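Q: What residues go here?
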């Protein structure tokens, strides 16, 4: 069964300092356009993640969002106790005696805590060698969720495009119903034009000209090729894992035969059927752009 290129998946990795969340969203695209929208992933881990995404999702515009939610212990900042003690001793033993005041401990301590480097604000790496297996498993879980989503969307796409191919085949059969009528209409039109010119045609010559004219308007080959393209479309969508690109080429060929049929139709009801074929084909084209 085919897959859509539209998908969404989410997974979480519970680490020692908090929770790392992966969200993957995909839309249609000609190739695998992968965008990792986060700085939480170390550079040495970005390439493996990209390879995992490309291998699993194949094609599409793929956005990977990574968010970090630290737990209470992980969000707490570290106080440099040795530096606080050093600052306090300097104030107590050097500054206060110099200016002749006692040490107001509470005020001094609160001031010291606001000095540079007292609070350690350096962020440790969230993804490490030790927790990488957990992170990697979360990425795979998110990718599996995307593929499940794509498969469900693909089922709806399959039903839609295959039913429209069936509609085109039915319209091709409808065109055949008007073939005999069209020949009679062409014959009558030529005779009427000759009557208006007050000329009596030579029967043999008239038949030759009529045959020549009808051969120029013959659409039998177009109908045969259109049916062949429709069968090839169905064989491709049923038989290939990722048929999206090939289906686009087949749709082009189907459109060529439908357009030629319209240009040769010379019959109002055939023209209406051709317009309906074009409408069905355009909807197939729009949907196929999202088939993986």
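A:
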């Amino acid at each position: 069964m085919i897959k859509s290129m539209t998908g969404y998946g989410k997974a979480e990795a519970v680490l020692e300092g908090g929770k790392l969340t992966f969200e993957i969203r995909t839309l249609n695209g000609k190739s695998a356009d992968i965008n990792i929208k986060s700085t939480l992933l170390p550079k040495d881990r970005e390439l493996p993640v990209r390879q995992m995404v490309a291998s699993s999702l194949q094609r599409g515009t793929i956005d990977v969002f990574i968010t970090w939610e630290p737990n209470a212990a992980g969000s707490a900042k570290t106080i440099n106790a040795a530096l606080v003690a050093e600052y306090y001793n300097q104030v107590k033993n050097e500054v206060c005696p110099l200016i002749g005041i006692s040490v107001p401990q509470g005020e001094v301590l609160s001031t010291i805590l606001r000095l540079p480097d007292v609070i350690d604000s350096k962020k440790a790496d969230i993804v490490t060698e030790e927790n990488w297996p957990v992170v990697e498993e979360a990425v795979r879980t998110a990718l599996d969720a995307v593929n499940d989503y794509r498969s469900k969307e693909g089922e709806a796409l399959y039903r839609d495009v295959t039913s429209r191919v069936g509609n085109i085949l039915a319209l091709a059969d409808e065109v055949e119903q008007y073939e005999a009528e069209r020949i009679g209409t062409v014959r009558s039109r030529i005779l009427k034009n000759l009557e208006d010119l007050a000329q009596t045609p030579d029967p043999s010559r008239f038949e030759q000209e009529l045959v020549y004219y009808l051969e120029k308007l013959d659409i039998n080959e177009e109908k045969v090729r259109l049916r062949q393209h429709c069968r090839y479309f169905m064989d491709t969508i049923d038989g290939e894992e990722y048929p999206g690109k090939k289906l686009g080429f087949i749709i082009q060929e189907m459109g060529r035969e439908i357009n030629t049929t319209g240009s040769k139709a010379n019959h109002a009801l055939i023209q209406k059927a051709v317009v309906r074929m074009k409408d069905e084909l355009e909807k197939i084209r729009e949907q196929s752009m999202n088939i993986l």
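A: Context that may help when evaluating the design: The radius of gyration is 37 Å. The mean pLDDT is 86.
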